[in-house]
Amino acid sequence: MSSIVLSVILPAVTDSEKLGRFCSSLFSGNTPAELLICGETDSRFFEKLPQEYTEKIVLVNAEYKVQSVSKAIEISSGKFLMFSDESVIFAPDAIEKLIVASRGNSAVCNAGIIHNGECNKAFSESFSLEEAAGKAVH
Questions:
Q1: For an engineered disulfide with 133, which of 97, 105, 109, 127 has Cβ 3.0 to 4.6 Å away?
Q2: Pairing label, strands 33-38, 57-60
Q3: Quick one: which of 84, 114, 90, 89 has its CA closest to 102?
Q4: pTM above 0.70, yes or no
């Protein structure tokens, strides 16, 4: 059984500095996570990342973007699946609170929680993880 709790999929990466900040915020928490990056990505983007981050990154390439994303979903090993963007910076405990808020559902999406293939819009369309984390506190 995998020790990975959260699989995060980035459909694209276009900026090495944003990727660095994203990885720092993702991997600094207590949740064991992996990052799956879809599509062709410039190898120079990873040169400044610490090895502890690059060891948790999986590059997923296919002929078309939708195939890369589909393959990333298929090979992800976390109990939870999240799609994100490289410009996101997670609050220190936001991921842990978001997972608690999911109440055991298998995936989290930008507008809420995916359950049985449907995204239940628990949050506003442009929610922040701070909003999600705030809703997780009871």
A1: 97
A2: parallel
A3: 114
A4: yes
Residue with tokens 């973007």: 65
Please state, in angstroms and rounded to a whole number, the distance separating the CA atoms of residues 39 and 32: 23
55-61 long-range contacts (CB < 8 A, ≥24 apart) are 56/27, 57/23, 58/34, 60/36
CB-based contact 16:45 (threshold 8 Å):
yes
Rounded to an integer, the average pLDDT of 11-33 is: 91
pLDDT tens for 63-79 read: 888 899 999 999 999 88
Torsion of CA 45, 51, 57, 63, to 10 degrees: 50
Cβ atoms of residues 12 and 76 within 8 Å:
no
Half-sphere exposure of 60 (CA within 13 A, CB side): 26
Closest CA to 105 of 117, 97, 93, 114: 114
